[in-house]
Amino acid sequence: MIFAFTRRLAQSLFVVFGVSVLAFLLTDLAPGEYFEEMKLNPQISPKTVAALRAEHGLDRPVASRYALWVRSVARGEFGYSFAYNCPVWPLLRTRACNTLVLTITALFFSWIIAIPTGILAAVGVGRWLDQFSAVCTSFLLSTPDVLIGLVLLAFALHTRWFPTGGMRDAGHVETSLFAAGRDFARHLILPVMALTAGTIPLLFRHVRSATLDVLDSPFIVAARGHGISRTRILFRHVLPVAANPLISLFGVSMGTLLGGSLLIEVIMSWPGLGPLLLHAVLERDVHVVIAATVFSTLFLTIGNLLADVLLYMADPRIRED
Amino acid sequence: MRTVPQNTASTDWIVCPARREVRDVMNRREAPLHFEPSQGLSVQPLLHVEDLTVAYRTQDGEQFLALDGLTFEIAQGEAVGVLGESGCGKTTLGLALLGLLAPAGRVIRGSAFFRGSNLLALAERELQEIRGAAISMVHQEPGAALNPVLRIGEHLADVICAHRPLSRERAREEAGLLLAQVGFPPETCIVAAYPHQLSGGQQQRVAIAQAIACRPSLLIADEPTTALDNVTQLGILDLLTRLRDKLHLAVLLITHDSGVLARTVDRILVIRDGRLIEQGECRELMRWSQDSCTQALLQSTPVVARRRNHEEALADTSDPVDPRSRDQTETANVVAIRSMVQECRHGFDVLTIGAQAREVGNQGPLLLVENLHKRYLQGRWLSRRRHQVDALYGVELQLQRGSTLALIGASGSGKSTLARCLACLEKPDSGEIWFEGVDLTARTDHKLVPFRRQIQLIFQDPGSSLNPGFTALEIVAEPLLAARRGTKKQCQDRALELIEQVGLRSDWAQRFPHQFSAGQRRRLAIARALSLEPRVLILDEALTGLDRLVQTQIVELLLQLQTDLSLTYLYISHDLGLVARLADRVTVLRQGQIVETASVAELLAHPQSVQAINLVGATQEQEPVCFRSQLA
Q: Is residue B493 part of a domain?
């Protein structure tokens, strides 16, 4: 187990390395760069631009730029943002934390809601709950995330129950930790709702079909044939088997933690990675883009690694060949 | 009249072990009990099924009757066999009795009285108390009937705890005792094992242990041995018989294999298209049945019947009637069997002479395998150690033109690997495969293409090797189109010819694979394999899982095709009965090595290796009683 885990870890590190190389090559291939617009500005002399480029090492070949970047990663800077004129890491850290608070909360609620409803729908397949949830998920799936976000915003504007953006009230004076927490939670509710509404249908359908698959299998018929009660069959015989594909899904969904909420963050002006990344892409602030990509990959591999460990614990067929 | 000791209280099992022992001794019968209808009426039957009719709704919204007005009785401690072709509703019967029908199935009318209550009218909760406790079931696929993530001990403890007021701890102890009862030695730690760690036979033993955990009075066994090889099959049937005697169990044994029934049951119900067409005492039925369908089903493949050419077979039986025709009389049967015995006695040199005669004019074998090695690395990335498995270890083989070589061996002995190597689907690690003077192993993939067309492989389960989105015509025409044999129209015409050649109707050509029966799908697979006019057909368990009737038909077809097209077969199987009908020579494989090669007759008469002895023994054991008595 330890051996296998370290092997997987090594593989994951290799993947992250590969993605960083690819990200570098691809951004290099893309036309244009941050200082392009400066060249158009008649007030800035071409010399100044050239000097700036040289300072950031943009005049060197790709390989040596990559080496520079790796060195800055080793220093804990993850490159240098041209637009913000500071190392990427401090910029990314606070934004990523904000994003993670949002996405982890949303993912938690999505799973908490999707698992029981999915199982209930599968157990009573064809009954009203199943059909009702089928209608709901189809509706949610076919509605674009943007629209959901906008509708929620309109709702908040209309009722004034929720703040319509940001993470904290601007004029809020922090009287106590509790009040600050309440304010934060109020700001969190809308984006979490929008995100949850986007992910629930997918998770729900997976949970439902995984449970249905197991419910149909011969060993469940056999268990019924042995007179084992329905609840015991469901909890002891069905769910542990149905968990298998869901664990893999969980691993993949970890990968969306950093990137899945970009749109909602921009719409709801949540100070997360989304607005930063949007800006960086538009301005060709390449190091921010590369760092964000590498971090997303890191989350995905961590998620998959976690899923592997969970699968290992859940399924004896994987534990040994 | 002998009265049967009644298993009075359903709470009988809460007795201490010692008392149970005493009861078991009392229940043990001295002689096999035969149910006779005249006496049966006076004894209260254990199960009385009246006019049981079950319908399935198809996807088109139509209904079709899976069971139609079934009426029968089972007495206390009696073993009853249900015999029928695949798809005749046998399995439905077992499921319907326990209320386990799939949602599309529904009991339309009828009753099934068990100890005074109608099983078909009980609520789910009441049924739950009967299932596993009073009536239990053993399913066809032992592997599929066990939960992959639960330990064996949990499987048993679950059943015990569902019906007996025992603590989990006590239930686990009880599980150990049960496992000993079904023949696991006590020192093995089977309780802690997971299903995938057991062999098919062991899994079925566990399933039986589950079924007898609460001392039921009726055991429904649905094809309990079909998925197992002959040797294992025998062990399971022995176990069932033993348990039946010991626990005074009534058994409803559902099968399509009359060989299984002859050993195990007292009485047989024959079902066709959901209707009960005949029932009677086992031997009587085998000897005197008037019904053609029963006859056909009871005809087990005789082990001693040697393979012969189609015309020969027709010429041999002086009777003008085709031996497989339905209205075969008993005398014709006896004549045929006698002639077979004669052939056996007069030595098998006839056979070898025949084989030699065929070889005249041909130099050397068509396919020659020399010192073939193939090794697999086992263990997935999560396992610590990777170990090597020698799937093939120095295999040497000769395949003569126009002959049939059978390859037998237990599962995992490397049969399928060899087949895949010969069909050029897999590269061996070392060794040579000579086909018509060309070493196939030395060729690159691209240069292998013409040879791939000459060596065709037919898989065990054509259901999964036929594309479900193609029609029959497209399936057969596809290889022709891929090989650019003429225009689309020409290819389709040729495909139609082939479809007719394997005995399918040409107006079925537009059907999809799922609309064919298992036997027809196999015919389709044969037609596809024949489309490129191959020289060699490799049949990888191509007849396994079919009922006897269909098997016989396909064997006839294969023999016919062999004479018509001078094909060479490599037939891979674990069923010696079929091997004897189809093959000239047999090669026994064990753990990747050839342990024995002999002509069929030699192997049957003097098997040398342990594997062969076991297989021959198992097959002979299973011959129906009537067959042996007629030989005598």
A: no
One domain, residues B58 and B145:
yes
The residues, any chain, with a CB within 8 Å of residue B529's CB and separated by 6 or more, are: B456, B457, B458, B537
A8 near B CB under 8 A: yes
* Per-residue pLDDT tens digits for B44-66: 789 999 999 998 887 677 788 88
Kindly determine whether residue B158 and residue A7, on different chains, have CB atoms separated by under 8 Å.
no
The interface predicted TM-score of the complex, written ipTM, equals 0.74
Sorted by where each starts, the structural domains of chain A and their CATH numbers stand as: 2-88 (no CATH), 91-319 (1.10.3720.10)
pLDDT of residue B411: 67
Q: Residues of B near A (CB-CB distance < 8 A)?
A: 95, 98, 100, 124, 127-133, 136-137, 139, 141, 144-151, 158-159, 162-163, 194, 196, 207, 210-211, 213-214, 378-384
Tokens of B522: 């196999």
Domain range spanning residue B148?
Answer: 17-22+46-296
Q: Note the pLDDT of residue A207.
A: 94
Q: Do B137 and A319 lie within an 8 Å CB cutoff?
A: no
Mean per-residue pLDDT, B119-124: 89
Residue B22 has pLDDT above 80, yes or no: no
Same domain for B342 and B289: no
Domain contains B601: yes
Q: What is the DSSP string of B251-299?
A: EEEEES-HHHHHHH-SEEEEEETTEEEEEEEHHHHHHH---HHHHHHH-
| Chain B residues closer than 8 Å to A210 by CB | none
Q: Is A226 on the interface with B (CB under 8 A)?
A: yes
Pick from A138, A189, A142: nearest CA to A161? A189
Number of domains in chain B: 2
Which pLDDT does position B366 carry in this prediction?
83
Cβ contacts of B378 on chain A, cutoff 8 Å = 321
pLDDT value of residue A120 = 92
By the CB < 8 Å criterion, does A128 face chain B?
Answer: no
Residue of B nearest to A126 (CA): B103
The model's pLDDT over B150-175, given as tens digits with 9 standing for 90+, comes to 989 999 999 999 998 889 889 988 89
Residues B221 and B322 in one domain: no
What is the model's pLDDT at position B136?
Answer: 92
| CATH code of the domain containing B244 | 3.40.50.300
Dist. CA B163–CA A228, nearest whole Å: 8
